[in-house]
Every structure is written in structure tokens, then in C-alpha cells.
Amino acid sequence: MIGKVGLAPMAGITNYSFRTICFTFGAEFAYTEMISAESVIRNVKVNELYFPHDDEKEKVAIQIFGSDPFVMAQAAKMLETKGAWIDINAGCPVKKVIRKGAGSALLKDLRKLKKIIEEIKKIVSCKVSVKVRLGFEKNEFDKIYDTVVEAGADMIAVHGRTAKQMYLGKATWNVRNKGYIPFYINGDINSLEDAKKAMEISGAEGVLIGRGAIGNPWIFSNGNPSLAEKLNIILNHLDFLYKEVGNRAVVEFRKFVTGYTKGLKNSREFRAQVMKIEDFEELKDLFRKYFLSLEN
Ligand SMILES: Cc1cc2nc3c(=O)[nH]c(=O)nc-3n(C[C@H](O)[C@H](O)[C@H](O)COP(=O)(O)O)c2cc1C
């Protein structure tokens, strides 16, 4: 809603430190990880870790998931001033989420999806967006789009796969933007060139980049950092993460190591070493030594 290229929501990945890194490279907006609406109305304390921080608040949407329209609305109301806008997760294909009628299960029950959007829109004054897939089992995007627009949502983002596909096959960008509300395309966009292509094919005004940014945040600036620059980015990311989660950074950072070391010499051996490290300073030293060995 604010710009063309945003960071897609990814549970366990798009925390404050990673969002910060992506913003420094030019991501124009981002989302929190998905947050359960039920847990919001129960005031579950851990959620506070997920909420946008003051310095990013105007460009980070809070994504919620759930299936009860009134619970979703109440949660949205409680969160509306904590982020830039509220996003509804109607795309998550994970069994645990679908079983509760949430995430992509809403694509099988468009009446409920509509009700959720309507109830939220009734009581919040911020914008409301919806992130969907093409459909649950088959491509029913036209119907989904119409439902989302009729319900009064302010923006729609679509991951060009069905829920059944999970992450298999190639995402399509051939999704028609009827143009009633801002439309963002997502899925397999792994460069700014892809972003341009995806926008041309779909007629979308912008894109969301997910996995392509993991361990590769310079994707947002079309960058190609030198080894020294890469090391610097990694150490910065680690420091941010440490500030955010303390020593848990050592384990959490493992998700980013493959991305950051992709294509580098002896990266497989290096990653195996990283997985054994438990101390934060040791981890930083290991990165320094590895990059020094690459320079030599
Ligand atoms: C680890 C991981 C976690 C994800 N978590 C969420 C989430 O919390 N909410 C959501 O709407 N989508 C989530 N997604 C889906 C992404 O936002 C995106 O739609 C999908 O990865 C396709 O885009 P990409 O090819 O650019 O990664 C997640 C994806 C991954 C890989």
C-alpha cells in the first residue's frame, strides 16, 4: 500500500531485525509474522515480540489469522494503532492452521472470508488488506478477488499458487488484476527484474518478495555486495538479532546461513560448523574466519 516492493510475511523469519535489514536495502514495506487473533484477544504476552517497533511502525502491517469474524475484528481493533495497517491471512496452507478454519481454509468458505473483512472494516479506522492464494484446490481467483473487493478490503496480495500446491511447481504471475483496489503479486520473485516482469504480466502495482530475501536482503536494491560487504551485513544482522532475542540469535540465525553463503566456496562445510555453535561471539568469529579464508 506504500510502495511497490515489499517484504512478504514469513513466520519465523520476518522479525524486527530482518525487517530492519530489508528496509536498509530498500524494501518499502513489510509485514509482521502471522499472529493468532485468538491469542491477541487473550492478551498473550509473547505477541509483543511480534509487534512493529516505533521506528518502522508506519510501514509494517500486522498480519492476523483466525476464523471467527468477531474474534478477528476484536483483535484487529486491539492492534490497529500498533502497525501501519491490518492484514488478514487467507493463504496459509499449513495443516494446523487450516484445521481451525483459518488461513487458506477461508478460500473454501468465501462467505466467512467476506464476513471477517466486513466485521474488521466496521470497527477499525486503519486500512485492511488480505493475502490470498489462487484458490484452495483450484484456481478461483476471480471469485476470491470479487469477494475481497465487495467486502471492502483496501488491498489484496496474491501468491500465485493454490493452497494444495503448497510450494510446489512454479508460481504463476498470470493473474488478472481487475483494478478495483491495489493489487500485489507474490511468488517466486527472486530479483527486481522478476518483480518488473511479474508486474507487467499481472498488471499488479507491486510485489511481495519472500524467500528470495532470506539471506539475500540486497535483493531490494538489486545489489551484488563484495565479500567484505556481505560479512558486514551478516555481522550487523547478527547484532540486531542479538538485541532482539539475546543468545537465541545463535539458533535463529541458522535459518539465514544458507542464503548468506549460497554459492560461496566450502559453504556446505561452513554451514555444518555453524549448526554446532552455541555461543554468539563464537558464531561471529566463525563468520569472520570463513570470509577471511574466502578473501585469501
Ligand atoms: C518460512 C515461511 C513462512 C511463511 N509465513 C507466512 C506467514 O506467516 N503469513 C503469510 O501470509 N505467508 C507466509 N508465507 C508465505 C510467503 O509470504 C509467500 O507468500 C510465499 O513464500 C511465496 O513467495 P516467495 O516465492 O517470494 O517466497 C511463508 C513462507 C515461508 C517460506
Automatic annotation (TrEMBL):
Keyword NADP: yes
Necessary cofactors: FMN
Pfam families membership: Dus
InterPro entries, per database record: Aldolase_TIM (IPR013785), DUS-like_FMN-bd (IPR035587), DUS_fam (IPR001269), tRNA-dHydroUridine_Synthase_C (IPR024036), tRNA_hU_synthase_CS (IPR018517)
A Gene Ontology molecular function term of the record: tRNA binding
Keywords from the UniProt entry: Flavoprotein, FMN, NADP, Nucleotide-binding, Oxidoreductase, RNA-binding, tRNA processing, tRNA-binding
EC annotation from Swiss-Prot or TrEMBL: 1.3.1.-
Catalytic activity: a 5,6-dihydrouridine in tRNA + NADP(+) = a uridine in tRNA + NADPH + H(+); a 5,6-dihydrouridine in tRNA + NAD(+) = a uridine in tRNA + NADH + H(+)
Record: residues binding FMN: P9, M10, A11, Q63, K131, H159, G210, R211
Keyword check for Flavoprotein: yes
Start and end residues of each DUS-like FMN-binding domain: 7-288
Entry annotation: catalytic residues: C92 (proton donor)
Segments forming a coiled coil: none
Family of the protein in this entry: Belongs to the dus family.
Function field: Catalyzes the synthesis of 5,6-dihydrouridine (D), a modified base found in the D-loop of most tRNAs, via the reduction of the C5-C6 double bond in target uridines.
The protein's name in its UniProt record: tRNA-dihydrouridine synthase
Source organism phylogeny: Bacteria, Thermotogati, Thermotogota, Thermotogae, Thermotogales
